[in-house]
Amino acid sequence: MEEDKYAKELEVAVRVVHVACALCGRVQERLLETSNDHVVSKDDDSPVTVAEDFSVQATISWLLSEIFGVQNVSIVAEEDIQTISKDESASLLDNVVNTVNESLAFASKYGLQSPETTLGSTEILEAIARCNSTGGPSGRYWVLDPVDGTLGFVRGDQYAVALALIEDGKVVLGVLGCPNYPIKTELLNYHYQHHQTTPQSSLATLDTGGKGCVLYAKSGSGEAWLQSLIDGEKMLEWPNRARLIRVSSIDDPTLATLCEPVERANSNHSFTAGLAHSVGLRKQPLRVHSMVKYAAIARGDAEIFMKFAKCGYKEKIWDHAAGVVIVEEAGGVVTDAGGRPLDFSKGMYLEGLDRGIIACSGVTLHEKFIGAVYASWDSSNL
Ligand SMILES: Nc1ncnc2c1ncn2[C@@H]1O[C@H](COP(=O)(O)O)[C@@H](OP(=O)(O)O)[C@H]1O
Ligand SMILES: [Mg+2]
After folding, report:
1. Considering 45, 53, 157, 301, which one is annotated as catalytic?
2. Does the model's pTM come out above 0.90?
3. Nearest atom (ligand 1) to Cα of 289
4. Where do the structural domains in the chain lie, given as residue ranges?
5. In which residues is Mg(2+) bound (predicted)?
6. ipTM for the complex?
7. What CATH architecture applies to the domain 2-245?
8. I want to staple 159 with a disulfide (CB 3.0 to 4.6 A). Which of 46, 149, 155, 329 is the partner?
Protein backbone atom coordinates (compact mmCIF):
# COMPACT_ATOMS: atom_id res chain seq x y z
CA MET A 1 0.00 0.00 0.00
CA GLU A 2 1.27 3.44 -0.98
CA GLU A 3 0.78 5.01 2.44
CA ASP A 4 2.79 2.21 4.05
CA LYS A 5 5.67 2.82 1.69
CA TYR A 6 8.78 3.70 3.70
CA ALA A 7 6.86 3.23 6.98
CA LYS A 8 9.49 0.87 8.35
CA GLU A 9 12.33 3.07 7.11
CA LEU A 10 10.79 6.13 8.74
CA GLU A 11 10.25 4.38 12.05
CA VAL A 12 13.81 3.07 12.11
CA ALA A 13 15.22 6.47 11.08
CA VAL A 14 13.37 8.21 13.92
CA ARG A 15 14.55 5.62 16.44
CA VAL A 16 18.22 5.82 15.38
CA VAL A 17 18.17 9.62 15.42
CA HIS A 18 16.91 9.47 19.01
CA VAL A 19 19.85 7.20 19.90
CA ALA A 20 22.23 9.67 18.21
CA CYS A 21 20.72 12.68 19.99
CA ALA A 22 21.15 10.96 23.34
CA LEU A 23 24.78 10.24 22.45
CA CYS A 24 25.37 13.89 21.52
CA GLY A 25 23.63 15.11 24.66
CA ARG A 26 25.95 13.03 26.86
CA VAL A 27 29.08 14.18 24.99
CA GLN A 28 27.98 17.83 25.08
CA GLU A 29 27.26 17.71 28.79
CA ARG A 30 30.76 16.39 29.47
CA LEU A 31 32.29 18.93 27.11
CA LEU A 32 30.51 21.83 28.80
CA GLU A 33 31.45 20.59 32.26
CA THR A 34 35.13 20.59 31.35
CA SER A 35 35.17 23.84 29.39
CA ASN A 36 33.94 25.90 32.40
CA ASP A 37 32.53 29.21 31.32
CA HIS A 38 34.80 30.17 28.46
CA VAL A 39 33.36 30.20 24.96
CA VAL A 40 35.16 27.48 23.05
CA SER A 41 36.11 27.72 19.42
CA LYS A 42 35.66 24.91 16.93
CA ASP A 43 39.43 24.33 16.95
CA ASP A 44 39.70 24.15 20.75
CA ASP A 45 37.52 21.11 20.82
CA SER A 46 38.01 19.55 17.45
CA PRO A 47 39.16 16.19 18.93
CA VAL A 48 35.87 16.00 20.82
CA THR A 49 33.75 16.93 17.85
CA VAL A 50 35.62 14.65 15.45
CA ALA A 51 35.16 11.74 17.86
CA GLU A 52 31.51 12.61 18.21
CA ASP A 53 30.94 12.85 14.46
CA PHE A 54 32.49 9.41 13.96
CA SER A 55 30.62 7.95 16.94
CA VAL A 56 27.24 9.09 15.62
CA GLN A 57 28.09 7.92 12.13
CA ALA A 58 29.25 4.48 13.35
CA THR A 59 26.22 4.08 15.64
CA ILE A 60 23.70 4.93 12.93
CA SER A 61 25.48 2.88 10.28
CA TRP A 62 25.70 -0.14 12.58
CA LEU A 63 22.03 0.07 13.57
CA LEU A 64 20.77 0.52 9.99
CA SER A 65 22.89 -2.41 8.81
CA GLU A 66 21.64 -4.66 11.61
CA ILE A 67 18.02 -3.84 10.85
CA PHE A 68 18.00 -3.79 7.04
CA GLY A 69 21.01 -6.04 6.34
CA VAL A 70 24.50 -4.86 5.39
CA GLN A 71 23.91 -5.52 1.68
CA ASN A 72 20.81 -3.29 1.64
CA VAL A 73 22.31 -0.24 3.31
CA SER A 74 24.16 2.44 1.43
CA ILE A 75 25.03 5.70 3.19
CA VAL A 76 26.38 9.07 2.08
CA ALA A 77 27.84 10.73 5.17
CA GLU A 78 30.08 13.59 6.11
CA GLU A 79 33.00 11.77 7.77
CA ASP A 80 35.26 9.55 5.72
CA ILE A 81 37.17 6.53 6.91
CA GLN A 82 40.67 7.84 6.06
CA THR A 83 40.92 10.18 9.06
CA ILE A 84 40.19 7.53 11.64
CA SER A 85 42.05 4.59 10.17
CA LYS A 86 45.52 6.19 10.34
CA ASP A 87 47.97 4.82 12.93
CA GLU A 88 48.13 8.15 14.74
CA SER A 89 44.36 8.07 15.22
CA ALA A 90 44.45 5.17 17.70
CA SER A 91 43.22 7.25 20.65
CA LEU A 92 40.48 8.78 18.49
CA LEU A 93 39.36 5.28 17.55
CA ASP A 94 39.42 4.15 21.21
CA ASN A 95 37.28 7.09 22.13
CA VAL A 96 34.82 6.32 19.32
CA VAL A 97 34.64 2.61 20.23
CA ASN A 98 33.78 3.53 23.84
CA THR A 99 31.22 6.15 22.87
CA VAL A 100 29.48 3.88 20.36
CA ASN A 101 29.28 0.99 22.82
CA GLU A 102 27.99 3.29 25.53
CA SER A 103 25.24 4.62 23.26
CA LEU A 104 24.26 1.22 21.85
CA ALA A 105 23.86 -0.07 25.42
CA PHE A 106 20.81 2.25 25.63
CA ALA A 107 19.32 1.08 22.29
CA SER A 108 16.43 -0.82 23.88
CA LYS A 109 15.10 2.43 25.36
CA TYR A 110 14.47 3.47 21.76
CA GLY A 111 13.01 0.12 20.70
CA LEU A 112 16.22 -1.11 19.06
CA GLN A 113 18.50 -4.03 19.80
CA SER A 114 21.89 -3.59 21.39
CA PRO A 115 24.76 -5.75 20.09
CA GLU A 116 25.07 -9.10 21.86
CA THR A 117 28.65 -8.36 22.80
CA THR A 118 30.63 -5.14 22.92
CA LEU A 119 31.68 -4.00 19.44
CA GLY A 120 35.42 -3.97 18.73
CA SER A 121 37.38 -1.50 16.65
CA THR A 122 37.14 -3.66 13.52
CA GLU A 123 33.34 -3.64 13.59
CA ILE A 124 33.28 0.08 14.30
CA LEU A 125 35.66 0.79 11.40
CA GLU A 126 33.54 -1.39 9.13
CA ALA A 127 30.42 0.55 10.10
CA ILE A 128 32.16 3.85 9.30
CA ALA A 129 33.60 2.50 6.06
CA ARG A 130 30.14 1.45 4.88
CA CYS A 131 29.24 5.14 4.65
CA ASN A 132 31.04 5.37 1.33
CA SER A 133 28.19 6.00 -1.07
CA THR A 134 28.56 9.05 -3.25
CA GLY A 135 24.85 9.35 -3.99
CA GLY A 136 23.57 9.94 -7.50
CA PRO A 137 20.42 9.61 -9.61
CA SER A 138 19.54 5.97 -9.04
CA GLY A 139 19.08 3.48 -6.24
CA ARG A 140 18.40 3.93 -2.58
CA TYR A 141 20.79 5.54 -0.13
CA TRP A 142 20.71 7.21 3.26
CA VAL A 143 22.17 10.68 3.68
CA LEU A 144 23.61 11.48 7.09
CA ASP A 145 25.06 14.56 8.73
CA PRO A 146 26.08 13.07 12.08
CA VAL A 147 26.56 16.45 13.79
CA ASP A 148 25.46 19.43 11.75
CA GLY A 149 26.51 22.80 13.17
CA THR A 150 29.72 21.73 14.92
CA LEU A 151 30.31 25.27 16.11
CA GLY A 152 26.88 25.37 17.72
CA PHE A 153 27.66 22.07 19.38
CA VAL A 154 30.91 23.23 21.01
CA ARG A 155 29.24 26.46 22.13
CA GLY A 156 26.45 24.59 23.90
CA ASP A 157 24.11 26.06 21.32
CA GLN A 158 22.03 24.68 18.45
CA TYR A 159 23.14 21.70 16.37
CA ALA A 160 21.34 18.83 14.63
CA VAL A 161 21.56 15.18 13.65
CA ALA A 162 20.14 14.85 10.13
CA LEU A 163 19.16 11.63 8.38
CA ALA A 164 17.31 11.37 5.06
CA LEU A 165 16.55 8.59 2.63
CA ILE A 166 16.91 9.23 -1.10
CA GLU A 167 15.49 6.97 -3.76
CA ASP A 168 16.23 7.56 -7.45
CA GLY A 169 17.47 11.05 -6.73
CA LYS A 170 14.45 12.18 -4.68
CA VAL A 171 14.34 12.65 -0.91
CA VAL A 172 11.63 10.27 0.32
CA LEU A 173 11.90 10.90 4.05
CA GLY A 174 13.79 13.08 6.48
CA VAL A 175 14.44 13.09 10.21
CA LEU A 176 16.03 15.99 12.11
CA GLY A 177 17.17 15.57 15.68
CA CYS A 178 17.60 18.93 17.44
CA PRO A 179 18.99 18.16 20.92
CA ASN A 180 18.89 21.79 22.15
CA TYR A 181 15.64 22.95 20.55
CA PRO A 182 12.87 22.20 23.01
CA ILE A 183 9.19 22.03 22.19
CA LYS A 184 8.87 25.36 24.02
CA THR A 185 9.64 27.74 21.20
CA GLU A 186 10.94 30.73 23.14
CA LEU A 187 14.08 28.77 24.02
CA LEU A 188 15.35 29.02 20.45
CA ASN A 189 15.73 32.73 21.11
CA TYR A 190 17.21 31.96 24.48
CA HIS A 191 20.19 30.24 22.90
CA TYR A 192 20.64 32.89 20.27
CA GLN A 193 20.54 35.88 22.55
CA HIS A 194 22.42 34.57 25.53
CA HIS A 195 24.95 32.05 24.40
CA GLN A 196 27.81 34.52 24.69
CA THR A 197 26.97 35.59 28.23
CA THR A 198 25.18 32.73 29.93
CA PRO A 199 27.23 29.99 31.59
CA GLN A 200 26.88 27.17 29.09
CA SER A 201 26.34 24.47 31.67
CA SER A 202 23.06 26.12 32.68
CA LEU A 203 21.55 24.80 29.45
CA ALA A 204 21.73 21.33 30.91
CA THR A 205 19.65 22.31 33.92
CA LEU A 206 16.88 24.31 32.25
CA ASP A 207 13.44 23.05 33.13
CA THR A 208 12.15 22.85 29.59
CA GLY A 209 9.99 19.76 29.71
CA GLY A 210 12.52 17.98 27.49
CA LYS A 211 15.63 19.68 26.18
CA GLY A 212 15.26 18.84 22.53
CA CYS A 213 13.05 17.56 19.76
CA VAL A 214 12.93 15.31 16.72
CA LEU A 215 11.07 16.29 13.53
CA TYR A 216 10.25 13.94 10.69
CA ALA A 217 8.29 13.73 7.45
CA LYS A 218 7.66 11.42 4.53
CA SER A 219 7.63 13.04 1.12
CA GLY A 220 4.16 13.44 -0.39
CA SER A 221 2.37 12.73 2.90
CA GLY A 222 1.48 16.37 3.55
CA GLU A 223 2.38 15.80 7.18
CA ALA A 224 5.37 16.74 9.29
CA TRP A 225 5.72 15.59 12.87
CA LEU A 226 7.35 16.85 16.04
CA GLN A 227 8.18 14.91 19.18
CA SER A 228 10.30 15.67 22.22
CA LEU A 229 13.46 13.81 23.14
CA ILE A 230 13.06 11.20 25.82
CA ASP A 231 13.97 12.14 29.39
CA GLY A 232 15.14 9.90 32.20
CA GLU A 233 13.81 6.37 32.30
CA LYS A 234 11.04 6.84 29.72
CA MET A 235 10.90 4.70 26.58
CA LEU A 236 10.35 5.93 23.04
CA GLU A 237 6.83 4.98 21.98
CA TRP A 238 5.95 4.62 18.34
CA PRO A 239 3.98 6.03 16.56
CA ASN A 240 2.52 8.31 19.21
CA ARG A 241 4.26 10.98 21.29
CA ALA A 242 4.37 13.09 18.13
CA ARG A 243 2.26 15.98 17.00
CA LEU A 244 1.59 17.44 13.58
CA ILE A 245 3.31 20.71 12.81
CA ARG A 246 2.56 23.38 10.21
CA VAL A 247 4.54 26.32 8.96
CA SER A 248 3.58 29.81 10.10
CA SER A 249 0.58 31.41 8.41
CA ILE A 250 2.20 34.85 8.44
CA ASP A 251 2.61 36.22 4.94
CA ASP A 252 2.96 39.89 5.84
CA PRO A 253 6.69 40.71 5.56
CA THR A 254 6.50 43.27 8.36
CA LEU A 255 5.62 40.47 10.77
CA ALA A 256 7.93 37.84 9.35
CA THR A 257 11.18 36.57 10.88
CA LEU A 258 14.28 35.67 8.85
CA CYS A 259 16.48 32.84 10.07
CA GLU A 260 20.07 32.54 8.82
CA PRO A 261 23.49 31.07 9.69
CA VAL A 262 25.37 32.57 12.62
CA GLU A 263 28.64 32.46 10.71
CA ARG A 264 29.26 35.25 8.22
CA ALA A 265 31.64 32.92 6.43
CA ASN A 266 28.73 30.58 5.62
CA SER A 267 26.22 33.12 4.32
CA ASN A 268 26.44 36.73 3.21
CA HIS A 269 24.61 38.65 5.94
CA SER A 270 24.71 42.00 4.18
CA PHE A 271 23.20 40.56 1.00
CA THR A 272 20.36 38.87 2.92
CA ALA A 273 19.84 42.07 4.94
CA GLY A 274 19.40 43.95 1.66
CA LEU A 275 16.84 41.41 0.43
CA ALA A 276 15.00 41.49 3.76
CA HIS A 277 14.89 45.27 3.66
CA SER A 278 13.60 45.41 0.09
CA VAL A 279 10.84 42.88 0.85
CA GLY A 280 9.84 44.91 3.91
CA LEU A 281 10.98 42.81 6.86
CA ARG A 282 11.26 44.76 10.10
CA LYS A 283 12.40 42.23 12.66
CA GLN A 284 16.03 41.44 13.46
CA PRO A 285 17.19 38.18 11.84
CA LEU A 286 17.37 35.14 14.05
CA ARG A 287 20.85 33.67 13.66
CA VAL A 288 20.97 29.98 14.44
CA HIS A 289 23.55 27.25 13.84
CA SER A 290 22.77 24.15 11.79
CA MET A 291 19.69 22.67 10.18
CA VAL A 292 17.71 23.76 13.22
CA LYS A 293 16.86 26.67 10.88
CA TYR A 294 14.80 24.29 8.72
CA ALA A 295 13.20 22.98 11.92
CA ALA A 296 12.30 26.54 12.94
CA ILE A 297 10.52 27.13 9.61
CA ALA A 298 8.68 23.80 9.79
CA ARG A 299 7.56 24.47 13.36
CA GLY A 300 6.30 27.95 12.50
CA ASP A 301 8.88 29.75 14.66
CA ALA A 302 10.27 31.74 11.70
CA GLU A 303 9.04 32.40 8.16
CA ILE A 304 12.16 32.62 6.01
CA PHE A 305 15.52 30.83 5.93
CA MET A 306 18.16 32.03 3.49
CA LYS A 307 21.72 30.91 2.88
CA PHE A 308 23.95 32.60 0.32
CA ALA A 309 27.39 31.03 0.53
CA LYS A 310 30.48 32.50 -1.09
CA CYS A 311 30.80 32.01 -4.81
CA GLY A 312 32.48 28.65 -5.46
CA TYR A 313 31.25 26.95 -2.26
CA LYS A 314 29.31 23.79 -3.12
CA GLU A 315 26.45 22.94 -0.80
CA LYS A 316 26.43 19.31 0.39
CA ILE A 317 23.31 17.18 0.19
CA TRP A 318 23.57 16.13 3.86
CA ASP A 319 23.26 19.76 4.98
CA HIS A 320 19.80 20.07 3.41
CA ALA A 321 18.05 16.80 2.48
CA ALA A 322 16.26 16.11 5.79
CA GLY A 323 15.39 19.78 6.38
CA VAL A 324 13.94 20.36 2.93
CA VAL A 325 11.46 17.46 3.02
CA ILE A 326 10.31 18.40 6.54
CA VAL A 327 9.70 22.04 5.58
CA GLU A 328 7.89 21.04 2.37
CA GLU A 329 5.61 18.56 4.13
CA ALA A 330 4.86 21.15 6.82
CA GLY A 331 3.56 23.40 4.02
CA GLY A 332 6.64 25.44 3.15
CA VAL A 333 8.52 26.10 -0.10
CA VAL A 334 12.25 25.51 -0.61
CA THR A 335 14.14 26.42 -3.79
CA ASP A 336 17.38 27.90 -4.97
CA ALA A 337 17.56 31.63 -5.59
CA GLY A 338 16.30 31.13 -9.14
CA GLY A 339 13.12 29.49 -7.83
CA ARG A 340 14.08 25.93 -8.83
CA PRO A 341 13.81 22.92 -6.50
CA LEU A 342 17.08 21.65 -5.01
CA ASP A 343 18.48 18.72 -6.99
CA PHE A 344 19.61 15.85 -4.76
CA SER A 345 20.33 13.50 -7.66
CA LYS A 346 23.77 14.72 -8.69
CA GLY A 347 25.98 13.11 -6.06
CA MET A 348 27.31 14.59 -2.83
CA TYR A 349 26.76 18.20 -3.86
CA LEU A 350 23.71 20.24 -4.79
CA GLU A 351 25.09 20.66 -8.31
CA GLY A 352 23.53 23.38 -10.37
CA LEU A 353 22.32 25.32 -7.35
CA ASP A 354 21.50 28.82 -8.47
CA ARG A 355 23.32 31.18 -6.06
CA GLY A 356 21.65 30.40 -2.74
CA ILE A 357 18.82 28.72 -0.87
CA ILE A 358 15.49 30.31 0.04
CA ALA A 359 13.02 28.46 2.26
CA CYS A 360 9.74 30.16 3.14
CA SER A 361 6.62 29.30 5.07
CA GLY A 362 4.47 30.05 2.01
CA VAL A 363 4.40 31.06 -1.64
CA THR A 364 3.62 34.74 -1.04
CA LEU A 365 6.81 35.41 0.90
CA HIS A 366 8.76 33.08 -1.35
CA GLU A 367 7.77 34.91 -4.52
CA LYS A 368 8.71 38.23 -2.93
CA PHE A 369 12.19 36.99 -2.02
CA ILE A 370 12.81 35.40 -5.42
CA GLY A 371 11.73 38.71 -6.99
CA ALA A 372 14.06 40.63 -4.66
CA VAL A 373 17.02 38.46 -5.66
CA TYR A 374 16.19 39.01 -9.31
CA ALA A 375 16.01 42.76 -8.82
CA SER A 376 19.16 43.13 -6.75
CA TRP A 377 21.55 40.50 -8.08
CA ASP A 378 23.36 42.57 -10.67
CA SER A 379 24.20 45.27 -8.16
CA SER A 380 25.35 42.78 -5.50
CA ASN A 381 28.99 41.79 -5.02
CA LEU A 382 28.34 38.05 -4.90
N1 LIG B 1 32.28 28.41 3.63
C2 LIG B 1 31.10 27.83 3.79
N3 LIG B 1 30.00 28.34 3.22
C4 LIG B 1 28.83 27.80 3.41
N5 LIG B 1 28.59 26.71 4.17
C6 LIG B 1 29.63 26.15 4.78
C7 LIG B 1 30.92 26.67 4.62
N8 LIG B 1 31.77 25.90 5.34
C9 LIG B 1 31.02 24.93 5.91
N10 LIG B 1 29.72 25.07 5.58
C11 LIG B 1 28.59 24.21 5.93
O12 LIG B 1 27.67 24.89 6.74
C13 LIG B 1 27.24 24.00 7.77
C14 LIG B 1 26.80 24.77 8.97
O15 LIG B 1 25.71 25.52 8.59
P16 LIG B 1 25.28 26.80 9.39
O17 LIG B 1 26.29 27.87 9.13
O18 LIG B 1 23.95 27.09 8.78
O19 LIG B 1 25.21 26.43 10.84
C20 LIG B 1 28.43 23.14 8.04
O21 LIG B 1 27.99 21.92 8.55
P22 LIG B 1 28.86 21.16 9.69
O23 LIG B 1 28.80 21.97 10.92
O24 LIG B 1 28.12 19.86 9.78
O25 LIG B 1 30.23 21.02 9.12
C26 LIG B 1 29.09 23.01 6.69
O27 LIG B 1 28.68 21.86 6.00
MG1 LIG C 1 26.60 19.99 8.23
Report:
1. 53
2. yes
3. 19
4. 2-245, 253-379
5. 78, 145, 148, 319
6. 0.98
7. 2-Layer Sandwich (3.30)
8. 149
